[in-house]
Design brief:
α9 crosses α12. The protein has a single domain, classed as Glutathione S-transferase Yfyf (Class Pi), Chain A, domain 2 (Up-down Bundle), CATH 1.20.1050.130. The radius of gyration is 22 Å and the shape is globular. It has 408 residues and is mainly alpha-helical.
Length: 408
């Protein structure tokens, strides 16, 4: 059995294991929850071409899957009267990429998205490293502009797409709200989310109700370790990108050394407590400013801002990692808890991030289908098997979810 067949069969095992885990969690949730508080899962937006996902497999990084750069589409727009030409927004499941996607959705912009697969190491491919030598997502290409910094991307969107009918997420400079929004953007975007993510994977004992299955966490740990070797090989194979690969390898090595230190991780999580306290206090001010129940405010005022984009994605990632109980799930920060319950119901949030925390839907199946599609000319039999079982797994999950739902 060659490596491609082995990896395909490994994906089948992961899909089945993930399905069983999701069904068990779903059954427990339905049985234990108050029926009056149960809600339907958000419907899938037909405009969304592909889910974005969290890396869950390791065997894929051990064999080469070269991809071509994404095709440059045309006519992406906010409407027929405001067309703009752009390459896809290259993104993945990283917090920064999710913030950009949410900002685009909140502004009502249309953008061709290309999912850079972290499990398949597409962010380390030479074509992507030439686009962004740091090898990180997101990246936005608009006309002749290539923008790699997430904050700069969102500021670029604000500056260039502010016509009538397009919501502003950053108040006018000099207004009473501008400094408040900028303060919370900087505060929340400075949080070491990579450290939280790697730390919770390497030390699952510090989490509670994590959305990362045990088998996936083990696979991710192995993949993280393999990445350094992969970068070294790519540096040898691509001399013109050697400096970029070596720099990325050094950054990764330094991060992993810190993130594997449990004492250091606990220190970071303790520091996060003070940030959450500040957010709780700010939200309480909004409650006191607008005591009417029918007119709740957001973080910085009665409008949804870039600060809310940062806070919404931060809370959603903490929920995924199994840290929500510590920071707001036990009633210790009621305003944060209420805020999170409200923000996940926003149409833009449901559309672009509604299924991000579901490993099966957002990770296992997309990886399996992409691998099957790429290798169809090589191993048709295995590809068909992966596709068939993947589809059957997904349909079975939807069927069982419907049966277990109290509304069905």
């Amino acid at each position: 059995m060659d490596m491609v067949e082995f990896a395909s069969l490994e994906l089948i095992r992961l899909m089945v294991a993930s399905l069983l885990a999701e069904l068990r969690l779903l059954e427990i949730e339905v049985r234990e929850s108050d029926l009056r508080n149960c809600r339907r899962l958000p419907k899938r937006d037909p405009r969304r071409k592909r889910p974005f996902f969290f890396p869950v497999t390791t065997s894929l990084s051990e064999w080469k899957l070269r991809t071509k750069p994404p095709r440059v589409p045309v006519g992406v727009s906010t409407g027929e009267e405001r067309s703009w030409r752009t390459a896809p927004l290259l993104c993945s499941e990283r917090k920064e990429a999710m913030e950009v996607r949410l900002a685009i959705a909140e502004k009502g912009l249309r953008c061709e998205e290309y999912d850079v697969s972290l499990p398949l190491s597409e962010h380390n491919e030479p074509w992507f490293m030439r686009l962004n030598p740091a090898g990180e997502v997101p990246v936005l290409v608009h006309n002749d502009n290539v923008i790699c910094d997430p904050t700069q991307i969102m500021d670029y969107l604000e500056e260039n797409f502010n016509t009538e009918g397009t919501p502003r997420l950053v108040p006018e400079e000099g207004s009473r709200y501008y400094l408040r929004v900028q303060h919370y953007r900087e505060l929340l975007d400075s949080l070491p989310m990579d450290a939280y993510t790697h730390g919770c994977i390497l030390h699952p004992q510090i989490t509670a109700d994590s959305h990362i299955p045990t088998y996936a966490a083990a696979s991710i740990r192995t993949q993280i370790g393999n990445t350094q070797t992969e970068l070294a090989k790519l540096a040898e194979q691509n001399p013109e990108l050697k400096d970029a690969y070596i720099a990325k390898q050094r950054r990764l090595k330094s991060k992993l050394f810190d993130h594997d230190n449990l004492k250091y991780l606990k220190k970071l999580l303790d520091e996060l407590e003070s940030v959450m306290d500040q957010v709780e206090t700010e939200l309480q001010r909004r409650v006191e400013e607008t005591p009417e129940e029918g007119n709740p405010s957001w973080l910085c005022g009665d409008f949804f801002s870039m600060a809310d984009v940062s806070l919404a994605v931060t809370l959603h990632r903490l929920k995924f990692l199994g840290l929500s109980r510590r920071y707001w799930g036990n009633g210790n920060r009621v305003n944060v808890e209420t805020y999170y319950e409200r923000v996940v119901e926003r149409p833009a949030f449901r559309r672009v991030l509604g299924h991000v925390n579901n490993i099966l839907i957002s990770a296992v199946l997309p990886v399996a289908f992409r691998v099957a599609k790429r290798n169809a000319p090589v191993i048709v039999g295995t590809t068909l098997l992966v596709g068939f079982l993947g589809g059957a797994t997904y349909l079975a999950f939807l069927y069982m979810k419907k049966r277990l739902s109290p509304f069905s």
